[in-house]
Specification:
Blueprint: H1 3-13, H2 15-20, H3 46-74, E1 126-128, E2 131-134, H4 141-148, H5 165-168, H6 191-194, E3 195-196, E4 202-203, H7 209-232, H8 240-243, H9 248-266, H10 268-274, H11 289-308, E5 310-313, E6 316-319
Antiparallel strand pairs: 1-2, 3-4, 5-6
């Protein structure tokens, strides 16, 4: 995600849910616990770090990455196509160039067909996949050097949002590196599923705008797994069914972070200001909901094992066993 979207999480969606824990009811077994030893029982210890980063954190990161790659795939970019893509440099295709998967060979202007529309004064004399400004003999030492002087696609900006990336990367990516777009406006899909406000409603498929949609989906996936985080952090040992969802401020926190991320995504001026996009509804928390469920039930299972290790000694509950 971009720095701005990370700040949207840290300073936006995280704030109210975090504050809501101040209003959480005490756990039912709190008076049965042995007092905390301040010299031994630190607030941040190896157990907490392992749980936060190596257990729950891994599931959260998986939710974000799964959503990210799914959205890119739905807009025509396969996951294995991405590696090293942003550092590749080529000539920009003409606005009139149309991608043709059949023209996979690098050919000259005399080949006709999709490669016939050449400007005789153009110094680039080759065509591939319909890109009529492809460098002739692009692997030669002279052309490799020339390509280094070119400017790569601005994936983090909108100035190249109308460029068909299949044409731009025609020499480095074969036709099988791309896939069919999931939605088409011609098939009756909602308009914002297929086009982007920030690029003046240009199609999202096979464009740099697909990255912005994927980043926005990642943002929503983080909010989705934050729902589970808020629920599992209510108690240390007890099940959520025992603690209950009686914290009104916590319930408002769940609504607030969801409404805030929806506001950030679906208010068009904020698309320009924050770099968000109006993602399709099937991409809004739906891909990451499985990970939300996994976090919740994983922690419930962990707490069952934890409670099985709770033994009463001298009128106090003590935690024993490997899970502690």
């Amino acid at each position: 995600m971009s720095t701005v979207l990370i700040l949207c999480i840290d300073l936006g969606t995280d704030m109210v849910p975090a504050i809501s824990f101040a209003y959480e009811n005490p756990e039912l077994d709190i008076m049965d616990r042995v007092p905390r030893n301040s010299k031994r029982d630190h607030l941040v210890n190896s157990k907490l770090i392992c749980f936060a980063y190596l257990q729950i954190g891994v599931i959260q990161a998986s939710a974000g990455m799964y959503t990210y790659f799914l959205i890119l795939n739905d807009y025509g970019i396969r996951p294995h196509t991405l590696w090293g893509l942003s550092i590749l440099k080529n000539e920009l295709p003409r606005a009139t160039d149309i991608y043709n998967a059949a023209n996979k060979d690098l050919v000259g202007p005399d080949a006709g067909g999709a490669c016939a529309a050449y400007d005789p004064a153009d110094t680039n004399k080759s065509c591939q996949y319909g890109h009529t400004r492809m460098l002739a003999d692009p692997e030669s030492a002279a052309q490799v050097t020339a390509r280094k002087e070119l400017t790569p696609l601005a994936w983090d900006k909108v100035r190249h949002a109308r460029v068909d990336i299949r044409l731009y990367y025609a020499h480095q990516r074969d036709a099988d590196r791309w896939t069919t777009c999931r939605w088409s406006h011609a098939e009756g899909s909602p308009f914002f599923y297929t086009a982007s406000y920030s690029s003046e409603w240009h199609p999202v498929c096979y464009s740099t705008e697909a990255l912005k949609f994927a980043q926005s989906g990642y943002l929503v996936s983080i909010v989705c797994v934050q729902w589970a985080d808020l629920m599992i952090c209510k108690t240390r040992n007890l099940s959520l069914s025992q603690q209950g969802m009686v914290n009104t401020f916590g319930n408002f926190g769940l609504f607030f972070e969801t409404a805030l991320v929806a506001f950030i995504l679906y208010v068009p001026p904020l698309n320009v200001a924050l770099g968000t996009r109006m993602i399709a509804f099937p991409h809004f928390a739906v891909p990451s909901f499985t990970f939300f469920t996994a976090i919740f039930f994983y922690d419930e299972l962990r707490k069952i094992w934890l409670r099985n290790g709770m033994k009463r000694e001298d009128g106090r509950l003590r935690l024993k066993g490997w899970i502690v």
